[in-house]
Fold each of these.
Amino acid sequence: MGAQFSIANFLNQVSLGPLSEYLAKRPDLGELRKLVAAGADDQRILAAWQALDPGLRAETEADFEDAEALAEPDHLAVLMEETRARRPSTARQLDGQQRALDKALWLITNDRDFAKDQILPLFLEESFSQKQWHRFPDLPLVAIQRPAAAADALAKSVSAYYQDQTRGQVHREFHIRRSDGTDYFAIYLDDYAAPFVGFTGPEFVRGSQHPAFQVVFAYQPSSGWLDILAPGGLKEHQALAVIFGKAVLGAEITPEPFRPVFVLEPFLNRGFDFRIDVADRIQEVRVQHLRIASTAHTPLEWVTLEASARGAPSEIHDLMARCLKATFFRSRSVVVGRVRIRFTLAPTPQGRTKRFNFDIRQKSHTIKRLPADYRRIAEKYLGRWDLSLDDD
C-alpha cells in the first residue's frame, strides 16, 4: 500500500478537526503540524511532508494508510459493530465524526491499540476471498480464559506439525475475540524456499526467499464449532483440529473423517421454503449453482447447473427438469456436492440493491469471506433452514 499512498488525497478526504487532533499528539512532526494548524496551502504542506525524516514519514504514513483501510465501507461497518459492543463510550464519540475517514483517524488517535491490534486484524478474512473453510462440529464448549497463552501454545504446536515438512517457523500469531464471541487464532509461518529474481531498491537480486502462509482457526465456544483455513485438504485440516483441541481446549478430539456438517439435498426441492424475517430486509433468496451427482452411477459423475442472474428464482429447478433425465432423480439417488445461495436485500434509501452469495459444501463453506452483517444473516438462516447437522 505504501507506494500507492497519496498525502494530497488523504488531506482532501479528512476533516481538519480529527487531523489536528492527531497532529497535536505528534510534536515530533514539527513544521507539518504547524502548517496544518495554521491552514496553510497544499503546496507548503506537501513540501513539509517531503522534508520529514524518512522514518517519521513512514510511521505517519502507516497511520494514515491504516485509517484509510478502516474507513472503507465494509470495514467501517465492522469497526462500528465491534466498537459498540466493546467500547460503547468510544462508539458515541465516533458517531459524532462526520466522515468515515474522520472516524477512523479519531480512533487511531484516541484508542490506538484497539484500532491497530483488535480492529484491523479482523480484516484478515478478506485475504481468504472464496477459499473454503472446513468446519468441525461438536468440540467441547470451553470459555478461553487466557487467549494469549492459548495462541502461543497453539502456534508452537502448529509450527511443530509443519516443521516435519521442513517449513513452519512462526513469524507471528495473534488472537481476536469478535463481538459474537468467536475466538480467532491466526498464525503466520514461513513456507518452502522459493527462487526470487528482482530488485531491492536499485539493486538487482537473484536468490531465494521464504514466503509466509497462514493458518486460521475460528472457534465458537457457545456451539462447539471450529472452522479451519489452512493449506491442504480435509486430511490436513483434521490434523490441525486435533492440535487445536490439545493446545487450546485441553481435550483429545477425534474429527469424524467423512461426517457431513451441512445437509444440501433439501435444495433439490422446487418448493423449498426459504423462511425469512422481514426485519432482515431480504427481498429474495435463490439457489444460483447446484453441483449434483446420481448415486446410481459409480464412480459418481458430477453435473454443475448454473442459473442466470436475472431469471426467475425457480430457474435452477427448471434447468434440472430440462437438462436431466427423470431417472437421474430416482428416490434417494441424488447427492448434492455444492450449493451457491444468493441473497438480494431490499433497496437502500438511496435506491441501491445489494446482493451477496456464498458456497456450501458438505464439510466446508465460504461464509467467512462475507462482511460481518452478511455473515450473520448467512449463519442465521443455515440454522433456521435445518442445513447445519450440528444444530441439535
Amino acid sequence: MTEAMFRFLYFDSNILLAAPWPRLSATIENILKTAPAADVTVIIPAPVEEELAHHWIRGFNERLRTLTAAADAFQGHYRNVSELELDLGLPPSDYATTLYQQRIGELKEKYGIQSAPFTSRSLADVFAMACLYQPPFRRIKEGDVGFRDAVIFLSVIDHLAPRKRTPLRPLSPRTPSSRTTPLRHSCRQRVRA
C-alpha cells in the first residue's frame, strides 16, 4: 500500500464561500465524501470558521435590512389609500445565527470535518510579520493586507507542527507565493522537526 501524498486537507474561506457556504457545491461534497477513504482528515481552521460565520451573518443582516426597508416603503406607499400593517415574519438575527451554527454542526458531524485552533502566536509576532511584509502580508497601494491570511496560515502551521514529516502544500487562491522566505523556511523546519 502506498503512503498518502497528504494526510490533512485544510479549507480556506474563499473555496467554501464560492459554493456559497454553508451550502456545499458538488465538488466540495465529493471531496468530503471521498476524504475518509483516502485517509485524509478535512480541517477548517478556527479563523476560517469565524470568518465564514461573520460573512454569513453580515449577509443575513444586509438582506434583512433590505427587505425591511422595502416593506416599510411599500407600507408607506399603500397607506396613501388604506391602513396596512405588514408582518414579514422574518427571523431575528440571533435566531438565524443559531440556525447557522446548527447547520455547521450538522455538516461537521456528517462529513467528519475537524477544526484547528487559532494560532498561539502572539499579536506582537503577527504584527512584526506585517511590518516586514512577510507572507502572507503584502503591500498594496491602498494599504497593508494579509492579517486574516496570516492568522489562518499560522493556525495551520501550528496544527501541523506536532505531526512529523507532514508536507506543507497550502492550496488556496490566497496562498502566499512559493518563493522561499525566512518565515516559510522556519515554518518548514518547524513542521519537519
Amino acid sequence: MAFSRCNNCGKHIPARHAYKSGLCRDCYRQGKYRKPTFRGGDNMGFRPANHTPKTINERPTFGGFVSGRNNAIFIKNEYQLELDNTFKAIVDTVHYIQTKNKELKEVYSKIPSVKYNIEAHQIEKAGLYTNLGNVLKKETDFEEKMWKTTQQGKKVKSITVKNKFKDSDVDEMRFDSMMDYFQKYPEYASKSTFRKILEKIDEKEREIRKETEHYNNLVSNYNFQLSEFEIYIQKAEDKLAAYEKIKEDGEKRLADCRYNKGLVSKFRSEQDKSDTNLNLLSHRFDAFKHTLDLIKSAHSEGPRTKFKEIGY
C-alpha cells in the first residue's frame, strides 16, 4: 500500500487520504483541514497544485527482492520525487511570469503618454520663445544688436535637448541669443511684459525636466523588467524540457524493470501497478506549457526593443 504523511501532524497515512485532504483521520475530524481557496485574475483556470509526495514508503522484503519489486519501488520513488519537485518549480515560475507580464504591460502603457507630454511641453516652450522674440523685436533693437552675432557662428550653449522633438537648430540659436540679450540688458528682463513671459518659460522648463525625469525612470524600469522577464521565460522553458527528459527516462527504466515485465505483471491489481509506475495524474504539464506559449506569443507580437532615455 502506498503511504504518505499528514500535512498537519506528520503521521503516516494511506495515500488515498493524502490525495484528498492531505490529513490523517484524527486531524480531519478535528477540523484542521484547509478551506478551499478561490483563484482569479491571471491564475484563473488553475486549481491549486497538489504537492503531496507520491513516493511509496515500503520497506524492502525478500519477496520483493525475488520478484524485482524492491528495485521497481526504488526507481519509481527516485524519479517520482524529481518529477514532483520539477513540476512545482514549473508552477511557481509560470505564475511568476504571469505577474511580471502584467507589470511589464502596465509600465509600457505609461511610456507613450509621458513622451507625448514632453512633446507637448516642447511645443508650448517654442511658442513662448516665439512670443518673447516678437515682443523683443517690437520694443527693442534686439534684431540689430544680437541676431547678426548669432549668425556669425555663435555656438548654442543653453536650452539643448539631446533627443529633440520639434525645435530646429535655428530656433535654438535664436533662443540663446535672446537669453544673451537679457544678460547684457537686464533692465528689459525686469519689465512686466518680459517678466511674465520669462516666468512662464521657467515654469515650462521645470515641467519639461519633471516629465523627462519621470520618462527616464519609466524607461529604466521597463528595460530592467524586460531583461528579467525574458530570463525567466528561458528558465521556464528549461524546466519544461527537464521535466520531459526526466519523465521519459523514468518511464523507460520502469518499463525495463523485471517486476513490470512478463506475463505475471498483467494480472496484478491497478493499485499494485500504480505503486511501481510514475503517478502524473495531478501534473497539469500541458496546461502550464500552453499558458507559457500564450505569454510568449503575446510578448513576441509586441515591441521588444528597449526604450532610450532622454537627456536634458
Amino acid sequence: MNQAYLSSPLVAFWAAQRNARRRSAVRCVVLLPPKGKRGFLNGIFHTEKQHLMKRTLPLLAALLFLSSGSFAQSKGVFVSDAVVSVAQQAKVDYKGLVRKASAKDTKALADLFEFTRIVEGAALTDHVRTCLELIPLVGDEAYAKTLESRSAGLKAYLLKHMGAAQQKAQKEALKKPIGEWAPYTWEALNGREVNLAPKAAAGQPSPTTAPDAAQLKPANDQHPPAQPGTLTPPAPDASKGNRLTPPGGRRGN
C-alpha cells in the first residue's frame, strides 16, 4: 500500500476513530468447557473493568440511597433530610436529640422545641411533624410539662404549624384532634396551665368531687332508720332536763 496514503491525515483520523470505537465497545468472551468433557455449554460473559465499574457504582449508590430512604427513622419517628441538613449547619445533632427524646429525655425534647426557631418553609413542617410523633413515645403528661416551660410565642408558633404536620403524618391516630388523645399537650399548646390531676384510687372519691352532705353530719346526728312496727321515742326537751318523762307519769320533786 502506498506509504503516502497511510501517512495521510484522513487515514490517521479514521484509524483513531476506529480505535476509540473498539475501546468503548463491550467485548464478550465465551469460555468453552475443556475438550473431552460432556455437558451443556457454560458461557461466562465478562465486560471490561472500566465499563463495569462505571455501570455498577451509580447503581450501588442508588441502592444505598433507597435503602436508607429519603428520611431517617428513630423508633418510628419521622426525621427529614432537609431538617438534618439545617441542623448540621447549626452544629446540632438532630438525630441524636430525636433518639434521646424518644427515650423520654425531657432535656432533649426541650432542645427540639427550641430548634423550631431556626427552621422555616417545608423543613419547618417536617420538624413539627417530628415533634408531633414524639408525643406517644414521651407521654402526654411529660410532653405537656416540658412544653409548658417554653415561651408563649414558641408554643403559639408550634400550634400554628401543628395542623399541617398532622396532615402529613402517616399514622391515622395522629390525624385526630390532639385534644382527644393528648389533652394535656393541647392545653400546653394553647398557653394554658397544665394541671395534672392525681388518679383517684378505686372506691375513693376524686379530690375534685364534693363530698356527700350525709358524710358531713356528725356521727351523733346520724340515726339508723326505724324498723316497721316499733315506736320512736320523742326527742328530749332541753328545757326540762335530759330525762325522758314516760307518758302519764309524774315528774319528781
